[in-house]
Amino acid sequence: MAHALPRLFSRRFCQPAALPRSLNSTSRTSFRTSIRNSPSPASRRGYASGNPNSSPLKVWPFVGIALAGSGAYALMVKSRVEMPPTTEQIAAPKKDTPTFSPSSVTVLFVLGGPGAGKGTQCANLVRDYKFTHLSAGDLLRAEQDREGSEFGDLIKSYIKDGKIVPMEVTVQLLENAMTEVVEKDKDHKGKFLIDGFPRKMDQALKFEETVCPSKFVLFFDCPEEEMQRRLLERGKTSGRSDDNAESIKKRFKTFVETSMPVVEYFEGQNRVVKVLATKTPDEVYKETREKLEQRLGKNF
Ligand code: AMP
Predict the structure, then answer these.
(1) What is the pLDDT along the chain (300 residues), one digit of tens a residue?
(2) Residues annotated in a binding site for a ribonucleoside 5'-phosphate
(3) Residues at the annotated binding site?
(4) Which of 5, 22, 163, 214 is the most exposed place for a label (fewest CB within 10 A)?
(5) Sequence-separated (6 or more) residues with CB below 8 Å from residue 297
(6) Measured in angstroms, how far is the CA atom of residue 196 from the centroid of ligand 1?
(7) Whose CA is nearest to atom 14 of ligand 1?
(8) CA separation for the pair 53, 46 (Å, rounded)
(9) Contact, 122 vs 193, CB < 8 A?
(10) What is the pTM of this model?
(11) Ligand 1 neighbour 159 (Cβ under 6 A)
(12) Nearest residue to 117 (alpha-carbon basis) of 222, 194, 199
């Protein structure tokens, strides 16, 4: 995932549409000026009709304009590439249809409070059912640690505070990762477990509208005391900046206030498969398989 966002920038920031409005209007003005200063229609017509009496020198104004135009365009592109992006600017261009069709790509969202065991159960499903596991948290941590990332500091402070990283970053990281998997194996029927996502309504809507509609949410339900016990235990060795009592408290608050409404939204559409996550990992996995088979059929 090391090049996740640069791929976005090269696609997005090297297109005129990504120009800030001010730069766009400047370039439009200079384009109009160059049109106004171009040779008269009469001389253009003389050249175009191939008039044998017209002098070959009349070509030069056109060549001059073309050279000036390409020089201005090159400068414009260069200045755009050097501009630091904002999170608003990294929003993918507006699309009418999602990048992936749900008839060729299967997406299951995996939700649950911090410490509910999402990662453990996803690893089991990857082993037994050949899913690709994409953890939003892992992708964000990788981007945070990537040398030269423009979003490293921003992600770091959001994670430490247990807050939801702006959706433009997370959705784009997920889309890039999915594209990479699908492109690598063109015949591969993409089957994705998208873990820790969507944690906020805007992400859910944006992802389904622009990347891929999901089949449903696999929700691991676990009481807070149990999740806290697990996280504090994990914190002894995980080295994660947010596995400490203070961050855990903030993460729970974010989960209850921001992520549970997402689960309720999907529940209202009968798109939640709920698994009780308090038992041992093996027992939780047994129930997970049974419920997924009920929903997707034996060979999902
Ligand atoms: P996790 O690894 O799933 O426990 O997530 C760790 C942290 O990463 C969260 O507390 C958030 O700060 C951030 N994060 C994870 N998933 C998302 C997401 N879908 N949207 C925004 N931020 C996220």
Answers:
(1) 334 454 443 333 223 222 222 223 333 333 232 223 333 333 333 333 334 344 444 555 555 566 655 555 555 444 444 444 555 555 556 677 999 999 999 999 999 999 999 999 999 999 999 999 999 999 999 999 999 999 999 999 999 999 999 999 999 999 999 999 999 877 667 999 999 999 999 999 999 999 999 999 999 999 999 999 999 999 999 999 999 999 999 999 999 999 999 999 999 999 999 999 999 999 999 999 999 999 999 888
(2) 141, 163-165, 196-199, 203, 240, 251
(3) 115-120, 141, 163-165, 196-199, 203, 234, 240, 251, 279
(4) 22
(5) none
(6) 6
(7) 137
(8) 9
(9) yes
(10) 0.73
(11) yes
(12) 222
By most ligand atoms within 8 Å of CB, the mutation choice from 120, 135, 138, 140 for ligand 1 is 140
Distance 192 CA to ligand 1 centre (A): 18
CA of 198 to the centre of ligand 1 (A): 9
CB 145 within 8 A of CB 152: yes
Q: How far apart are CA 59 and CA 47, in angstroms?
A: 7
Place of tokens 């947010």: 242
Distance from Cα 155 to the centre of ligand 1, integer Å: 9
Find, among 227, 88, 236, the residue nearest to 162 by Cα: 227
